[in-house]
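Below is a filled-in request sheet from our internal design queue. Each sheet records the structural input a requester submitted and the sequence that came back. We keep these sheets so that new team members can see what a complete request looks like end to end.

REQUESTER: design group, bay 2
PRIORITY: normal
MODE: inverse folding
CHAIN LENGTH: 79
BACKBONE (tokenized):
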């Protein structure tokens, strides 16, 4: 039955792991480090988030700027 086959499948809201690529989030997140992403987590000012930018996903800190938001690299060389 289809329901039985789907019972063990991962849903879109489950946490997953990713490997950090590049140095843009150093020194807090080193290249090669494994991070856990919680898709259902609440993103707020200062949260580290995955964001779809252009044609790719990026890992950045979410920062409130006036009435808007920006994505901030922790490494000053990428700011």
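RETURNED SEQUENCE:
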């Amino acid at each position: 039955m289809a329901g039985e086959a789907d019972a063990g499948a991962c849903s879109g809201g489950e946490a997953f792991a990713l490997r950090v690529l590049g140095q843009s989030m150093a020194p807090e997140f080193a290249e090669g480090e494994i991070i856990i992403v919680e898709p259902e987590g609440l993103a707020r000012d200062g949260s580290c988030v995955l964001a779809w930018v252009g044609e790719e996903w990026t890992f950045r800190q979410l920062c409130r700027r006036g009435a808007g938001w920006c994505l901030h690299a922790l490494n000053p060389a990428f700011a």
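SHEET NOTES:
- The two ends are 52 Å apart (CA to CA).
- The longest strand covers residues 56-65.
FILED BY: M.R.
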